[in-house]
Fold this sequence. Notes:
By secondary structure, this protein is mainly beta. It has three helices and 15 strands.
Amino acid sequence: MSMRIALLLSGLAAWPGVVCPATAQPAPIEVREDTVFSRDRGTLRVGDDGVAFDARDVKHSRHWTFAEVRQLRIASSRRIIVETYQSRGWRGLGHSQTHQYRTAAPVPPEWVADVLSRITRSVVTSVIPPAAAPARFTIDVNHEGTDTGGRLALYSEGLAFETTRDGFARFWRFADLDAVLLQDRYRLLVAAYEGSREHVRPFLFTLKHELSPGFYDELWRTVNGRSETTPRMRK
């Protein structure tokens, strides 16, 4: 492979939505299982064949196809949760099984971008992937209920709540959002799929100034799937 092609593939790996050859996949993340009964160490990887925890003790390794993963959550810069459709047995009463991992180092944004390019089911991430282009619109906001300040940024790939508070940021692909609604001039409701496709979590943001019509029109059309008419704000 020429040096020019290698550099091109390396650059593409940082772009959300781009799937590169296996040789360009981000390296697996060093983790330890974070449960009451297990502290197994190993690596967590997301590849073409699904999600895998490769434990140092092979008998504790796990592999899930994408069809077996209910939701992958990057809950903070050092915590990843894999929720699967596997039953927890009769004591679990049919609930899905979750596996929690602590990372040895902060989760790389490039790894998140690769995850988003491979998993079509909703992904929850508090680590924002690199953007292919600058945000089209931004606005300073406060997330009600957590008293977390930051900004909402609309990218061509999705909507981000950007904040320095670990675990509270979000990046949503448009397909991971159920609906958006401007409740009044200074409150925007974002309904995201968190937990599963059957559960929607509301995020209510207080806007520091009025949202520009272009921002809301583009966001509403993209998420709510209508291009004919923009809904009126409630006064």
